[in-house]
Amino acid sequence: MDNNLSLKKLIKPVNIKKPLPINLSNEIFLNIYFKTQQIVNNIPTVPKINRFTALTICATCFLVPFAINFNPAFNITVNGQHIGFASNKESLELAENLIESSLDKYGQADFSLNDNIELSPSFCLKSDIKTTDELIYAITNSSENICMASAITVNGEIIGACELAEDTESVLKSLLDEYKSNPSDNASFIQDVKVKTLPVSIDLVMTSSSLLHSLKTNKNIDIQVISNMQRTESIPYQTQKIESDQIEQNLVKTMQFGKNGIASISEQVVTINGQETQRTVLHRSVITPATDCIVAVGTKSNGIGSGQLIVPMSGYTFTSAFKLRNGTWHKGVDLAAPVGTPIYAADNGIVTTSKLSDSYGYYIVIDHQNGLKTLYAHNSSLLVKEGDIISKGQQIALSGNTGNSTGPHLHFEIHSNDVAVNPEIFLNFGTETP
After folding, report:
1. So what's the pLDDT on residue 92?
2. Per CATH, which fold does 317-425 belong to?
């Protein structure tokens, strides 16, 4: 609202109907006259302010804002340089103690605050008073032998620092990236490696390149990398053997060629300082299955023995061993069985004898063409003839009681290089029963 309009409303116009007395010159009567007119016309009274009151008001308007915004404080200088204001001496002492404690905690006990730090009473705006953290920064950065820097600590000990935190972070990232094969690899420090902004010795502050070189040669830092890798591996084929009586013994014929398959392998590989320490297969899937190799092994006898003999009869009683008997040497074993019991070839070979004799009765000799021969005597019937090629296990005769025999049995001999040897060297006939 306009001030003039306010005054007009406040002060009513004075309507003086009577002129002033012509001879009214006395000041007392003049005052009485104006007072009377003021009452009659309802004119407001404006108080008169004396000089002391006015001076007090002016001082109050000036000093109150000053007192509100300005506080007593201590001016702090380090080596003669103003660094800020502290609210009290204790704030400065706390900042100094925290700086020295930090130096000692991170392996810098040899460094301390040897700078000339002075306090002087002063006034300052409240906003100019520094907190403890701000005092630490200001004191450290004004010191001659220490400074605030971005430090790398390993297990709580400073091993280097850069002025800027982004340089320190870049150094650690470069060190980790050097051991990564792929961007997706997870690289980390095995030790407790941290980046902190701390008071450090000026000697520890380096350029980023110098710090990176120092870390590479530091033997107390190990880097672990966990990688997920994908590779393929060959699936070796298997060889299956089948027997074929259409192929001569000791001959092998490939019926199907083998082919290796391919498998996809997902693995997790752990390395420490570039050396693999662990490999774990996460997933394995077959891309192409392997094709087995199939070979046929001939069983058709060509007269050559395998060297692995079989007992030529089943369901027998072992009645006489290879030994001296009745004053003469019994050159084989006797296997008692009823007449007509099947007799089988002990191994592959060629029949060299198939005939009747006075002592052996009906008997057969098979040459196994490997230094061994076998003889089967006292048979009732012969099923093969001289010159026949015989397979192991093939039936060659029926047991009997012919020749010089005291009862139905098979007399079985083995000759090695034409010398009779104990058949029990090659075969187990069980327990002899006289």
Report:
1. 84
2. Glucose Permease (Domain IIA) (2.70.70)
